[in-house]
Amino acid sequence: MNCGILIGKGVRFLNIDHLxxxxxxxxxxxxxxxxxxxxxxxxxxxxxxxxLEQELGVSxxxxxxxxxxxxxxxxxxxxxxxxxxxxxxSCLRHFQMLREGVGTxxxxxxxxxxxxxxxxxxxxxxxxxxxCDFEFSTGMSSQVCQSVIQGKADIGFCSKILPDPQLVYAxxxxxxxxxxxxxxxxxxxxxxxxxxxxxxxxxxxxxxLSGQRDPVDRLFAPVRDRWHIAxxxxxxxxxxxxxxxxxxxxxxxxxxxxxxxxxxxxxLTHPVQESDFYIVRRSAPHPMxxxxxxxxxxxxxxxxxxxxSL
Length: 310
Description:
Elements: E1 4-7, E2 12-15, H1 16-28, H2 31-38, H3 42-56, E3 61-64, E4 67-70, H4 72-100, E5 103-109, H5 114-128, E6 132-138, H6 141-149, E7 155-158, E8 167-182, E9 193-194, H7 195-198, E10 203-206, H8 213-220, E11 229-233, H9 236-244, E12 250-253, E13 263-270, E14 274-282, H10 289-306
Parallel strand pairs: 5-6, 5-7, 9-13, 10-11
Antiparallel strand pairs: 1-2, 3-4, 7-14, 8-12, 8-13, 8-14
Helix pairs in contact: 1-2, 1-3, 1-4, 2-3
Keywords: DNA-binding, Transcription, Transcription regulation
Family: Belongs to the LysR transcriptional regulatory family.
InterPro entries: LysR_HTH_N, LysR_subst-bd, WH-like_DNA-bd_sf, WH_DNA-bd_sf
């Protein structure tokens, strides 16, 4: 492969293959053996070294008996040539991995989906694609979508759609609303609860910064004037901790973090409301094929959960 780098203000082209030849010749110190090792003709090797010396404006080798030896400038070039060739090889390997769809996928997710949804999907995909790995970060839904748009994340998992033509979404999970109350709360004696039955009590809910606030707002819209919000925080674990300590009750989507031993979880029987969680990627094709494959894999797995016959 004929690769090169630009050097100097005169836009001179330094051929990386010539640097490879220089490194082999510096090891063999013999044109014939080096040419044989490189699988090129001896005249081709001589021409490449002469071209490299011309580009650099110095002689790299000097005669030593019947062979050759590195000259002053050749010795000075040696370590830099090794670094340049190693970097070029690393770059070529990296982009070969991108083309073949392996490498590290950068995922950003809302905390609610980490356990077990995202971790399970990643484990399953990695088992089927051994060359693939993941880099994880968390954020609120709006942050997740912005990270995908800005190229800071390859794939996102969120609970709220940010309308933007640069993004493609797919629903991967649907969850129903439940109430969570302290263990010593009057409602804890029940097995289910209606929205009306929660209204006499102070509520802890999501702040406006959280994508999880939207489905809760839709649920309470008909009775908004009777919805007593005592505390608003961004994180579900914080909400549940406040509930466990008796600061109020909450109504939120049924996800694994809700089920903890210090609160009672009650299915909401009226009205019944469900909300979706989404996977998101950029609509433009990604240079790493595994991004779209992982997206499609997650969608297919979610469909299997809702319809086991698939």
